[in-house]
Design a protein that fits this description.
Layout: E1 13-16, E2 24-30, E3 37-38, H1 40-49, E4 57-62, E5 65-66, H2 68-75, E6 81-85, H3 87-96, H4 114-118
C-alpha cells in the first residue's frame, strides 16, 4: 500500500507480509542525488515516525548513500530491525531481480571449435 504524498507520517509504503496483517514492513524512500549522504537524523526521524505503529520491520531506501554514523545507529537499535538500502545496493538488487531494468542488448561470445578444424 502506497501512502499519500503529504502528511504520510514518514511512511511511504506498507507491505503486508501476510493476508491477515500480522506482520508489516514499513518503507521510507528518498530520491536524492547519488553524491548526497543521509545522516543519522534522517534515520532517527523515520524510526520515531514508526514508534506509534509498533513496527518491527523497517526499510529505508535511497538513491543516495548513508553516513557511517547512520549505518551504526541502524545496526544498534534494540527490538527493531531497520534495513538501509543505498543507491548502489538498490541498483544491484534491481539488476539481480530484473526490476525496472529491461535488456537492451544481448552479446554473443564465440570461440573456435578446434575439433571442426582437426578433421580437415
Amino acid at each position: 500500500m502506497v501512502t499519500q504524498q503529504s502528511n504520510d507520517g514518514g511512511i511511504d509504503v506498507i507491505i503486508k507480509e501476510d493476508q491477515l496483517g500480522f506482520s508489516n514492513i514499513y518503507i521510507q524512500a528518498k530520491q536524492w542525488a547519488t553524491n548526497q549522504t543521509i545522516g543519522k537524523p534522517e534515520i532517527q526521524k523515520f524510526v520515531g515516525a514508526l514508534q506509534g505503529q509498533q513496527a518491527q520491520k523497517r526499510l529505508f531506501i535511497t538513491t543516495a548513500k548513508f553516513s557511517s554514523v547512520a549505518l551504526q545507529y541502524a545496526d544498534n537499535l534494540l527490538g527493531t530491525k531497520i534495513v538501509l538500502v543505498d543507491g548502489l545496493t538498490l541498483a544491484k538488487l534491481m539488476i539481480k531481480h530484473n526490476v525496472g531494468v529491461p535488456v537492451e542488448h544481448v552479446y554473443e561470445i564465440k570461440k573456435v571449435d578446434s575439433d571442426f578444424f582437426s578433421e580437415l
